[in-house]
Amino acid sequence: MKKILFIHGPNLNLLGKRQVKIYGSLSQTEIFGMLETIFSDYKFTFFQSNYEGKIIDQIHNANDSMDAIIINPGAFAHYSYAIRDAIESIETPTIEVHLSNILKREDFRKISVISDVCKYTIIGKGYDGYTEAVKKVEDLK
Q1: 10 Å Cβ neighbour count for 72?
Q2: pTM for the whole thing?
Q3: % of the chain residues with pLDDT over 90
Q4: In a 10 Å sphere around its CB, with 0-12 CB exposed, 13-18 middle and 19+ buried, how is residue 28 labelled?
């Protein structure tokens, strides 16, 4: 059974309430429940934090215990070199996911400092981006 750490960055705990036209109407809990139902042959650990250091700690800890990390870093994608360095410093393959198409949003969102250290980056596919990311775990290593 593959073990996947799902990391949600800042403000993603407000999914379903925050900018529904951009991020959709499902809550974070509903999304995570949907993934567990669709992919019952995987062991998921779900983590959300609005704090950069807590996310970095989860990335470090995943190195010895997880087969993959799927991260939606939220706004941290655009400026957190610390999260980028954490991903780069471990051997656990990481997939970056964004619900919205960051390339068609504000200029500051168009660059992800994390993408180049991730195996895949999936943008603008809504919730389907998460299911695509889980399927891509099979292509890793």
Answers
A1: 24
A2: 0.94
A3: 81
A4: middle
Which candidate in 8, 23, 42, 60 is catalytic? 23
Phi-psi region of 16 (alpha: psi -120 to 50; beta: other; left: phi over 0): left
Per the CB < 8 A criterion, the answer to whether 59 and 114 are in contact is no
How far is it, in rounded angstroms, from Cα 56 to Cα 71? 11
pLDDT in tens, 63-117: 989 999 999 999 999 999 999 999 999 999 999 999 988 888 878 888 999 999 9
Catalytic residue among 98, 120, 127, 130: 98
Q: Do you know the residue count of the chain?
A: 141
The residue type of 16 is: G
The CATH number of 2-26+37-111, from 3.50.30.60, 3.30.300.30, 3.40.50.9100, 2.40.40.20, is 3.40.50.9100
Phi first, then psi: give them for residue 103, nearest 5 degrees.
-75, -15
Q: What is the mean pLDDT of residues 110-133?
A: 96
127: annotated active-site residue = no
Give yes or no: 23 in active site. Answer: yes
